[in-house]
Design a protein that fits this description.
Elements: E1 14-18, E2 32-33, H1 49-59, H2 71-74, H3 85-95, E3 97-101, E4 104-109, H4 114-117, H5 124-135, E5 145-146, H6 147-157, H7 162-173, H8 183-196, H9 203-217, H10 227-237, E6 243-247, H11 261-295, H12 300-303, H13 305-323, H14 330-337, H15 340-345, H16 351-383, H17 386-392, H18 404-408, H19 411-430, H20 432-435, H21 443-446, H22 451-458, H23 461-473, H24 486-510, E7 515-521, E8 525-531, E9 543-547, E10 557-560, E11 569-575, H25 579-594, E12 603-608, E13 620-626, H26 631-654, E14 665-672, H27 682-694, E15 698-704, H28 713-729, E16 741-743, H29 748-758, E17 763-769, H30 772-788, E18 792-798
Parallel strand pairs: 13-14, 13-17, 14-15, 15-16, 17-18
Antiparallel strand pairs: 1-6, 2-6, 3-4, 4-5, 7-8, 8-11, 9-10, 9-12
Helix pairs in contact: 1-28, 5-7, 7-10, 8-9, 8-28, 9-28, 11-13, 13-16, 13-24, 19-22, 19-23, 29-30
Domain FAD-binding FR-type: 508-614
GO molecular function: calcium ion binding; NAD(P)H oxidase H2O2-forming activity; peroxidase activity; superoxide-generating NAD(P)H oxidase activity
Protein name: ARABIDOPSIS THALIANA RESPIRATORY BURST OXIDASE HOMOLOG F, respiratory burst oxidase protein F
Length: 800
């Protein structure tokens, strides 16, 4: 799919695009038009309350949430993409058996296999009701189905005429097939489809929603709904195309020419590139320097270029063993990040990636240094000509030529081998599979892996650095103390890192943190509201480390702050994703039962900077959070709302002034697969909706992936109820907030396309927090739309 087709023409006076409009638009230059109903018997009852409710559905902007290219997408019983009749026929043939009747032998499938035939095996109860509606509700609907009947049913389900599919849905709701839908029928269908879509619903809610539909359609209070009224409701509530025009004269940003992909990649990665290039140049220079130096030493006559290679690698090892500590000096990085000069040229957000890159350099150095010594240098020393040995390096060995085993027993070699073993343990347990306890690992291995194992094994480097000092002081080829430079390399980084750990210990140990509030949310999410320590200052998007000595006095785990900088408390949302978080949740769960005085003791350390802090660099911000990944963005949105409120007050009081920079427009996309997740930030969503009534700066888009996407017949009635309820009460039935919930996975291509059109020529910061898989997709989209349109998308990511 080419993006060029999505771009507006440069010579047009206006740009028409389809956008979501669940919240107020931020542009004053846009006008919305909605497609009216072709007919509606209900509308003829002018002035009635149900009439007014349906009118709000049509004109209130509540339903125009997704663009639809044709009627086939507005209501469908089966997904025909990649699921054509020939695929259904193949599945029919695999499941069919031969039955004998009046017409002779026929290939048939059991009624219970109909769902498997049409590709809806996972929705068994719904398929049974659909089959009952297709057959016509006769008592013998639970019977064998021939291929001709299956083909007929398939044609009815995929009928391109919308009215035909609405009538089929009517028959599905009409339980006794008398041409009328009663309130009890609607309640039964609601009770059927909610579990299919993994939605929790109470008995009273099903009755309330059924009554709401009756209120909207049963204008004459007959106690039932007829097909024409049902058709009017679905045509009013199913999403339609909403067209919004943006005029050129209101465009804020100047037109810019699209950039080439090479230029976009350079702009996105130049800071990483120069840091890595500088690192490689330093490593190469150090290696070359030592390689040439030892090529002119007397020992070269014994060991040759093996010695030069080993010593060159050793010099890079000294440098990298010093450098690897700097990316994990979090206090120092947080302090440097505040300086615009440093943050503009140093990619602080990639500190862990650089830490891993240096670790890779250490692995290569160890292989070259240790491998060359063991495989080449030591055999040449023990097997060299005695006269050459005496003339060159005999003094280093007390004038006695050692055997290979004697060399291995020396202090320098023994410490080197010990370091290699410790680093192998730490490096292997720090890789993704053991650290995340991958299911692909054998069960016996999984028992001894995980984050805790990674954390403890990483502290083996305390021993490694101690052994490194000993190793450097007993080199048998280096006598001059000035040439024993290892301590010179590592002294400052080790002292800096040790100082940071000391400051962390003192700061967390003397800062008593009082727990103000504890909440346990569905999905095993723990909410902690903590008293803000005196002098604690943080910016939105930062994170803190938390320790619970009752679990472990050594383990610290990072969590994003979900409170705003102006709040007088600290708050975190912790989801149980590992051993430590599970134990923490269990402790507080038990404490809630025994009373607040029994809460476990908590220490905090921080705050520390994260990539989300860079949101202040952009006028337009797009935030994408998956599940608990929304947490850092809650802090950012709170900060934006507070700053806008303060700037309004200051502007009213002073008349002018320069308020602190803050994004002028923010989009939040929250994707979750569990309905209960919306409870985590329910109060905040209500607060944002209230703020948006005054200043439409933030647009929130909730996506629930457990529900079949909008347009699917399995969720069509839920969409109708959702629209009616929100039009009447202003509350979404899924999230229980004013923020409308969309169903299914977001179409990120369409979302980026709309953003590029809405903010032509702008520079948009895209911030993501979630699993790595989607991060790669979004980074590709940012690059693609930056090259094909004149809107710049700059990608930032965090993982959990």
């Amino acid at each position: 799919m080419e993006i060029d087709d999505e771009e507006p023409h440069s010579d047009s006076d206006s740009v028409s695009i389809t956008i979501s409009s669940s919240l107020s638009s931020s542009s004053s230059s846009c006008s919305a038009s909605f497609v009216p109903l072709p007919f509606s018997p209900v509308q003829q009852a002018a002035g009635s309350a149900p009439n007014r409710l349906l009118h709000r559905l049509e004109s209130g902007g509540m339903l125009s949430l997704v663009s639809w290219s044709n009627d086939g997408e507005r209501l469908r019983f089966v997904d025909t993409e990649g699921n054509e009749w020939r695929n259904v026929e193949n599945r029919f043939d695999r499941l069919a058996s031969t039955a004998y009747g009046g017409n002779g032998p026929q290939r048939v499938v059991k009624w219970s296999d109909f769902g498997a035939c049409i590709g809806m095996r996972e929705s068994g109860e719904f398929v049974n009701e659909l089959l009952r509606a297709l057959i016509g509700g006769r008592r013998e609907w639970k019977r064998d189905i021939t291929k001709d009947e299956a083909h007929h049913f398939w044609n009815r389900m995929t009928d391109p005429w919308l009215d035909s599919r609405i009538h089929l849905l009517f028959h599905l709701c009409d339980r006794n097939m008398d041409g009328r839908i009663h309130e009890r029928d609607i309640k039964q269908v609601i009770s059927l489809i909610c579990p299919i879509n993994k939605l929790s619903i109470k008995h009273g809610e099903a009755e309330e929603y059924a009554a709401l539909i009756m209120e909207a359609l049963d204008v004459e209070h007959q106690g039932f709904i007829q097909p024409s009224e049902f058709e009017a409701l679905f045509k009013a509530s199913l999403p339609k195309v909403s067209t919004i025009s943006y005029q050129k004269k209101h465009r804020r940003y100047q037109k810019q020419e699209p950039l080439s992909k090479a230029e976009i990649l350079f702009r996105s990665n130049w800071r990483r590139a120069w840091i890595i290039l500088l690192w490689l140049m330093i490593c190469f220079t150090l290696f070359t320097w030592k390689f040439i130096q030892y090529s002119h030493r007397s020992a070269f006559q014994v060991m040759g270029y093996c010695l030069s290679t080993a010593k060159g690698a050793a010099e890079t090892l000294k440098f990298n063993m010093a450098l690897i500590l700097l990316p994990v000096c979090r206090n120092t990085l947080t302090w440097l990040r505040k300086n615009p000069g440093f943050s503009s040229v140093i990619p602080f957000n990639d500190n862990i990636n650089f830490h891993k890159l240096i670790a890779g350099g250490i692995v290569i150095g160890v292989i070259l240094h240790g491998g060359t010594h063991l495989a080449c240098d030591f055999p040449r020393i023990s097997g060299s000509d005695r006269s050459v040995f005496r003339q060159t390096i005999a003094a280093r060995f007390g004038y006695q030529q050692p055997s290979y085993l004697q060399i291995l027993a020396t202090t320098e070699v023994a410490t080197g081998i010990a370091m290699v073993i410790l680093m192998m343990i730490a490096f292997s347990l720090a890789t993704k599979w053991p650290r995340r306890r991958s299911p692909s690992l054998p069960r016996s291995v999984r028992k001894v892996t995980g984050y805790n194992t990674f954390w403890y094994s990483h502290h083996l480097f305390v021993l490694v650095y101690a052994l490194l000092i000993v190793h450097s002081m007993f080199l048998f080829l280096t006598v001059n103390f000035i040439e024993k430079t290892t301590w010179m390399y590592i002294a400052i980084p080790v002292l800096l890192y040790a100082g940071e750990r000391t400051i962390r210990a003192l700061r967390s140990g003397f800062s008593e943190v009082k727990i103000l509030k504890v909440s346990l949310y569905p999905g095993k999410v723990l909410y902690l509201r903590l008293q803000k320590p005196e002098g604690f200052r943080h910016k939105s998007g930062m994170y803190i480390f938390i320790q619970c000595p009752q679990i472990s006095p050594f383990e610290w785990h990072p969590f994003s702050l979900s409170c705003g900088p102006e709040d007088d408390f600290l708050s975190v949302h912790i989801r149980t994703l590992g051993d430590w978080s599970y134990q923490l949740y269990s402790l507080f769960q038990e404490a809630k039962l025994t009373g607040p005085k029994q809460y476990p003791k908590i220490y905090i350390d921080g705050p520390y900077g994260a990539s989300s802090q860079d949101h202040i660099k952009y006028d337009i911000v797009v935030m994408v959070g998956l599940g608990i990944g929304i947490t850092p963005f809650i802090s950012i949105l709170k900060d934006i709302a507070t700053r806008l409120k303060n700037s309004t007050i200051n502007h009213a009081a002073c008349g002018d002034g320069s308020p602190e920079k803050t994004p002028l427009k923010a989009y939040l996309y929250w994707v979750t697969r569990e309905q209960s997740s919306f409870n985590w930030f329910m109060d905040f969503m209500k607060e944002i909706a209230e703020t948006n009534q005054k200043q439409s700066v933030v647009e929130v888009f909730n996506f629930l992936t457990s529900v079949y996407e909008e347009g699917d017949a399995r969720s069509a009635l839920i969409t109708v109820i959702q629209s009616l309820y929100q039009a009447k009460y202003g509350t979404d039935i899924v999230s229980r907030t004013p923020v409308h919930t969309r169903f299914g996975r977001p179409n990120w291509f369409n979302i980026f396309s709309k953003l590029a059109r809405r903010h032509r020529g702008a520079r948009i910061g895209v911030f993501y927090c979630g699993p790595k898989a989607l991060a790669r997709e979004m980074q590709k989209l940012c690059t693609k739309f930056s090259t094909k349109t004149n809107t710049r998308f700059v990608f930032h990511k965090e993982y959990y």
